[in-house]
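Please go through the protein record below and see whether the fold suits the sequence. Record follows.
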Amino acid sequence: MTERTVDALLPLKPDVFTILLVLLDGDCHGYGMIKAAEERRGRKGELQPGALYRLLKQLLDDGMIAEVPPDDAPPDADDRRRYYRITGFGRSVAAAEARRMAELVEISTQHRLLEDGEPS
């Protein structure tokens, strides 16, 4: 695992942030993450399996997620699937990204970018 700081990982790619948000709800396997991401974003096909598994490897290497040991998987888990969970470090990174985005929304609000019509 590469030792990285929270700040060194920001800003997160939207797909990475989405994966972390999905895992905040509990352990999940890859296909479950794709389905949950579709439900969250309301759009299908944005998180593709090939991209997902590359991102999962990076998240594992960065220590933001961990693979769930088979004996700790959900009772109804399919033995053929790998389950993942967010780590404490991953939770810290997701929280820092949420704060970063909230600051941007605040600045956008001050400039009336989120109102209907043209910005001032």
In short: Helices lie at 14-24, 30-41, 49-62, 88-110. The chain has one domain: 7-110. The two ends are 47 Å apart (CA to CA). Residues 88-110 form the longest helix (23 residues).
